[in-house]
Specification:
four-stranded antiparallel sheet, Jelly Rolls, Arc Repressor Mutant, subunit A, alpha+beta, 7 helices
């Protein structure tokens, strides 16, 4: 998380330099290819990260929620361009930190640089873990892992509340073909693990999702 590891005073300093921005559901925070002008820290709401394919389609990469951040490259290089599109899934508020403001913070307190270093290190670890997962885990396991992660993002783990997600989005997040995801979900429905509704997935047995995701307790 962006502010993890900072002292209360440092957190206050960062927040004071940020600009609060509000986005309606469906509104784009930025588009792939835009000049990166700021890092975004999600204070409320959820954001879908999308990437474009060679065919011009947009595929879902991940959903980010409260306390998560994205757009870190904007703080490193003023010429950087966005590598993905960010769209608000619901009314969302972010704390936006531009590069000049970050530089001012860093000059005043060199320890602030630790914030960006930690975020980038976490990102490298996540990407490395996803790469290893893609190379070593079957698609079925990846599908259940994405469902487990999304339960945490939407704060519905252990409840019967739905995850607002399409099967297409789940497929691209899991790096699996749609027909495989459909097969996994059909089997899960048959086994009473989950139920599907229009653009919704309801987990009925979270313990079984965790077991099938091959995650430790």
């Amino acid at each position: 998380m962006l502010l993890d590891g900072l002292s209360p005073q440092e957190r206050t300093e960062v927040r004071q330099q940020c600009r609060r921005r509000r986005f309606a559901a469906g509104e784009h925070l930025f588009h792939e290819g835009d000049i990166g002008d700021a890092l975004h820290y999600i204070d409320r709401g959820r954001v879908l990260i999308l990437a474009s394919t060679a065919a011009g389609e947009h595929v879902a990469l991940t959903v980010l929620g409260q306390g998560q951040s994205f757009g870190e490259q904007a703080l490193l290089d003023p010429r950087s361009r966005r590598t993905a599109t960010a769209r608000a899934l619901e009314p969302t508020e972010t704390l936006s930190l531009g590069r000049p403001d970050f530089e001012a913070l860093r000059r005043a307190n060199p320890q602030i640089e630790r914030m960006l270093t930690n975020v980038l290190a976490d990102q490298v670890r996540r990407l490395s873990a996803r790469l290893v997962e893609a190379l070593t885990e079957p698609a079925e396991v990846r599908v259940y892992r994405r469902l487990h992660e999304l339960g945490a993002v939407y704060q519905v783990t252990g409840t019967g509340e739905p995850i607002p997600l399409t099967q297409d989005q789940l497929a691209t997040m899991a790096g699996a073909r749609l027909r495989i995801v459909n097969k996994v979900l059909n089997e899960a429905r048959r086994d009473g693990v989950l139920a599907t509704r229009r653009r919704r997935i309801v987990i009925e047995d979270w313990d079984e999702v965790q077991r099938r995701a091959q995650l430790k307790n």
